[in-house]
């Protein structure tokens, strides 16, 4: 496995906070976890009516799903297994090189 | 040779540096290669100068890629642009005019340590790799470390954050080296372009405040031409405008610093996509992404040669 399989089960969430309350709640939820912000680059830059993409470690994915559902915040999972995506990209590269 | 180089795959730092040496060796009429300093971990910071040699001082355009390590499409674009510039010099009259009248300074990998780390250890690493004396967290955001409204809104003073501004402005040797080079050549450099991902946007100053830049009309017009040229390739619509209002407020950015230091056209591209793949943009999209971006950069460079 690439990168020692460190991303197995990690997910990328896309979240849509619709108002100030949801922005604040989201900052609270994500601020207490070791999430990797993809867009925007940090919790402080989250605004209403913009999309938030975060990479969540496998141990935290269930908790994030639960909290977002509990708070009725609109979200989806963009990448369901990050390791799989990384392997796919590199597998494709290897096959091209062989060819 | 460079003709067998595969521009449609992502390359490691070692491969990119070998490619730079090869391009420099095989294209002596159009290419010059030099180092502007060393990274925190001691790697050379290479720049390619592309353009027809001239006795008089030509206007210049600076392009940097790979400021943020995980944005792999950036270095892929810089390599693509060099290939296009050299390869189309004979056939494309626009490119020929650009290379005859301008010098392009191209830095394919700005954050060399971070890029290497993203290949070997952490695919999603963003910052440089400098050590902090008080915290175990490493690295500084190389796009928050410039001496312009340093470490204010949109930057973090905490070393463990991804937007950490560093202990002081230009604390990172990579930023310091580029700033020194740009300061030295600022009379000639008319455009500064920094390549990032992802959001599909073309941004210009200011990043740190909502005010309008003095030469807004010229810059806005150049941005409009660039996104129109980009659209003409594959029909992709880029948003464009001041970084503060189009993306978000951030301080200590390179475009604000370059603008403040007298470079009239400064832009940051946020390349594909809008999040479907995010930083894992498939290699099959390198060609369309770089092709359309090349058109946009050519439009900006053409704008530099016009009076506004």
Brief sketch in words of this structure:
The complex is a heterodimer of chains A (99) and B (308). With 99 residues, chain A is α+β, with helices and mostly antiparallel strands. Chain A has helices at 20-31, 58-70, 82-98, and strands spanning 11-16, 36-39, 52-56, 74-79.
Keywords:
heterodimer, A: 99 residues, alpha+beta, four-stranded antiparallel beta sheet, B: 308 residues, alpha/beta, eight-stranded mixed beta sheet, 9 helices, 8 strands
- Derived from helix and strand composition plus strand pairing, the structural class of chain B reads alpha/beta
List the total number of helices of chain B: 9
Query: Helix fraction of chain B?
Result: 25-40%
Q: Tell me what portion of residues of chain B adopts beta-strand conformation.
A: 15-25%
The secondary structure category of chain A is: alpha+beta
Instruction: List SSEs of chain A in N-to-C order.
Output: EHEEHEH
| Unreliably modeled segments of chain B | none
Largest protein-protein interface = A-B, 29 and 29 residues
Mind explaining what this structure looks like?
The complex is a heterodimer of chains A (99) and B (308). Chain A has helices spanning 20-31, 58-70, 82-98; strands at 11-16, 36-39, 52-56, 74-79. With 99 residues, chain A is α+β, with helices and mostly antiparallel strands. A four-stranded antiparallel beta sheet of chain A has the order 2-3-1-4. Chain B is of the alpha/beta class and 308 residues long. Chain B has nine helices and eight strands. An eight-stranded mixed beta sheet of chain B has the order 1-2-4-3-5-8-6-7, sandwiched between helices. The model of chain B has no long low-confidence stretch (mean pLDDT 97). The interface between A and B is medium-sized, with 29 and 29 residues.
């Amino acid at each position: 496995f690439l990168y020692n399989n460190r991303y197995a089960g990690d997910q990328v969430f896309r979240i849509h906070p619709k108002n100030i309350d949801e922005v604040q709640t989201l900052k609270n939820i994500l601020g207490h976890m070791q999430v990797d912000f993809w867009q925007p680059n940090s919790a402080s830059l989250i605004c209403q009516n913009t999309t938030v993409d975060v990479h969540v470690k496998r141990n935290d994915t269930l908790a994030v799903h639960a909290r977002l559902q509990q708070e009725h915040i609109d979200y989806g999972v963009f990448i369901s297994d990050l390791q799989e995506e990384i392997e796919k990209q590199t597998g494709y590269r290897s096959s091209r090189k062989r060819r | 040779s460079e003709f067998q180089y595969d521009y449609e795959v992502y390359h490691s730092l070692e491969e990119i540096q070998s490619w730079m040496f090869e391009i420099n060796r095989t294209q002596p009429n159009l290419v010059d290669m030099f180092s502007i300093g060393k990274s925190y971990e001691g790697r050379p910071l290479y720049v390619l100068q592309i353009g027809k040699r001239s006795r008089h001082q030509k206007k210049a355009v600076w392009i940097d890629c790979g400021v943020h390590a995980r944005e792999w499409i950036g270095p892929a674009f810089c390599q693509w642009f060099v290939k296009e510039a050299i390869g189309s010099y004979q056939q494309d009259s626009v490119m020929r005019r650009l290379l005859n009248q301008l010098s392009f300074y191209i830095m394919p990998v700005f954050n060399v340590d971070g890029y290497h780390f993203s290949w070997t250890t952490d695919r999603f690493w963003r910052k440089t790799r400098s050590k902090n004396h008080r915290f175990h967290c490493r690295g500084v955001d190389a796009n928050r470390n410039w001496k312009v409204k340093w470490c204010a809104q949109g930057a973090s003073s905490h070393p463990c954050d991804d937007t950490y501004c560093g202990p002081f402005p230009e604390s990172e040797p990579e930023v310091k080296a580029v700033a020194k080079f740009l300061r030295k050549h600022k009379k000639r450099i008319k455009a500064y372009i920094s390549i990032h991902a992802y959001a599909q946007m073309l941004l210009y100053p200011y990043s740190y405040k909502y005010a309008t830049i003095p030469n807004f009309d010229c810059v806005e017009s150049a941005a409009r031409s660039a996104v129109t040229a980009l659209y003409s390739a594959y029909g992709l619509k880029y948003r464009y405008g001041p970084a503060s209002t189009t993306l978000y407020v951030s301080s200590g950015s390179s475009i604000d610093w370059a603008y403040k230091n007298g470079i009239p056209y400064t832009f940051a591209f946020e390349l594909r996509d809008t999040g479907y793949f995010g930083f894992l943009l498939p290699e099959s999209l390198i060609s369309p992404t770089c092709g359309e971006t090349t058109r946009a950069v050519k439009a900006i460079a053409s704008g530099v040669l016009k009076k506004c």
